[in-house]
Write a structure and sequence with these properties.
homodimer, 328 residues, alpha/beta, five-stranded mixed β-sheet
Chain lengths: 328, 328
């Protein structure tokens, strides 16, 4: 019997699911609305149904499922498989998700932080393939992170390693929603990038973004990059600020776990080469001269599938480890 | 036959050696002048002689030696056992130290970065005992670092992980000897602490340190802490600057690999509780409010023995792994 794995990315808005064979080839994927307001039991039922449907479409049944992996936002006790709380899943308080799912699926289930799952996806099948040592940043509302060291995800003593957006790069700088000052997240997340543009316009900066702000009452990160492409000076300055903050982050993680590859993911990488090249330029400008660094700084390759691929890969890894232990 | 291990700390000035039983109990230790100017062959001969002498004193012969570990400054190809170059060992260029020693000792030899070896010593037998996840800083001429993640030393893709003194904490700040600006090392190493005091006095600051500077033409880090103890205001400000930089380092490594324990070592910890308490205060002042952090920030427990203990422990680990592989 061939192995079949399911990877699940449980978000506040959508649940993404993918079904994979033993070589992590995608057999099928789907996405359903989370409807988190119906509570954990209803969400778990929906996950179980979706897995069954996905397996059926791929010509499989629940009996063929070897293991499932789930990426969820923290804080959670990932080892125990319990979601403690989540801003995006407000009714989930101390929910034993791993137990609920593994009983419903009659298969082993592994829980992982969602950024770590996406990081692992890029590591096994994307931009960091075979890097051995990799650091992953996801640029969205905030900045999430994941670290692979010597081929393993770094979890830390309390399963909260990789909070890379909260590395302080400008002491006494902008206030971050975490309570610290000067976090990278307060400068270079998609939200902070947009927010800095709004602040500049409110302070009287000249920019083609001013019209957007007047019409929509808001500016998005996408607006900034669109106006950058059209040559707007302020959009260029805002992008520079984000790129420099991200370059400082790259330098600091390089000197910590020394990744071979640094991967940026999240909506903001839609900005394309103009952002990537500025990050690389600032990195080269600010990195030490002690020795030449060859770290590759690049964008993610798997898009929105990174989470489900990573979760499935972790499930496969966990299953193989279990099998190996049973054989001993 | 019981196992016997030797740990060696190869420095530019002295070679420290320790002989240990299988439980890492110290059977004897010694220190000899390196005399690096005599060249690698002479230094290796001295190391071999010292190991033999140390074993004999403990009632052993070379035949009883199970393995030896050596901590050396980088850059080196530790896996291959080759010292590429070292500012403190100027005649050591591409020296196959591991091969030379293992032939001379007729036992397996493992080479490790000196800061990593000391980090490992504190991890297995000192302040970070059983922490699982630990970060280690050594405050000397520069700031060295070591990281233990999930019970293993982090080496990075090119064996240069843990260059924690070169984490940038003040972009556009003080120039570091590495070429970057704003490295932690440029503020909080023993040398930088002393240098900042000299700069302040040259800029006209009032301080009891002024007399020291006029008499000796220099100020040491030790002077700063001695005058701090006597209530000198400038010494207090300089110490504050170092403590704040070190607290920022603590926050940044906490958000990266999430250590349970952060250990400071090196001559500068002679400053005692006044320094440690200031680091902790700044940490608590600047850390996020998102969740309570319980990381222990403390000083090293093994003093100068950390390096030889760590090197011996790594040798034992390596030997045990070899044995296990041979049994399979």
């Amino acid at each position: 019997m061939s192995e079949t794995y399911v990877g699940i990315d449980l978000g506040g808005t959508n649940i993404k699911l993918g079904c994979f064979d033993s070589n992590l080839n995608l057999l099928g994927k789907t996405s359903v609305a989370t409807k988190a307001d119906l509570g954990p039991a209803a969400v778990v039922d929906k996950m179980l149904e979706s897995v069954k449907g996905l397996l059926a479409e791929a010509g499989h049944s629940l009996r063929d499922l070897s293991a499932a992996g789930v990426g969820t936002p923290g804080p959670a006790k990932y080892n125990e498989g319990i979601i403690i709380a989540s801003p995006n899943l407000p009714l989930f308080k101390n929910v034993p998700l791993k137990k609920m799912l593994s009983e419903g699926l009659a298969a082993p289930v592994i829980l992982e932080n969602d950024a770590n799952a996406a990081c692992w996806g890029e590591y096994v099948a994307g931009a960091g393939r075979d890097a051995g040592d990799m650091v992953f940043f996801t640029l969205g509302t905030g900045i999430g992170g994941g670290i692979v060291s010597d081929g393993k995800l770094v979890h830390g003593c309390g399963e909260n390693a990789g909070e890379l957006g909260h590395i302080i790069i400008y002491p006494d700088g902008r206030r971050c929603r975490c309570g610290q000052r000067g976090c990278a997240e307060a400068y270079a997340s998609a939200n902070s990038t947009a927010k800095r543009a709004v602040e500049a316009i409110e302070a009287g900066a000249h920019s083609s973004l001013k019209k957007v702000f007047e019409e929509n009452g808001a500016i998005t990160c996408k607006d900034v990059y669109e106006h950058l492409a059209k040559g707007d000076t302020l959009a260029g300055e805002i992008t520079d600020g984000s790129a420099r903050a991200l370059a400082l982050l790259c330098i600091n993680v390089l000197h910590t776990t020394e990744p071979k590859t640094i991967v940026f993911a999240g909506g903001m990488i839609g900005a394309g080469d103009v952002l990537l090249n500025r990050i690389r330029d600032y990195f080269n400008e600010q990195i030490w001269t002690l020795k030449k660094e060859t770290v590759e700084i690049c964008f993610a390759a798997l898009g929105e599938d990174a989470g489900i691929i990573g979760a499935a890969a972790l499930a496969a890894q966990c299953k193989n480890k279990d099998d190996a232990q049973r054989k001993q």
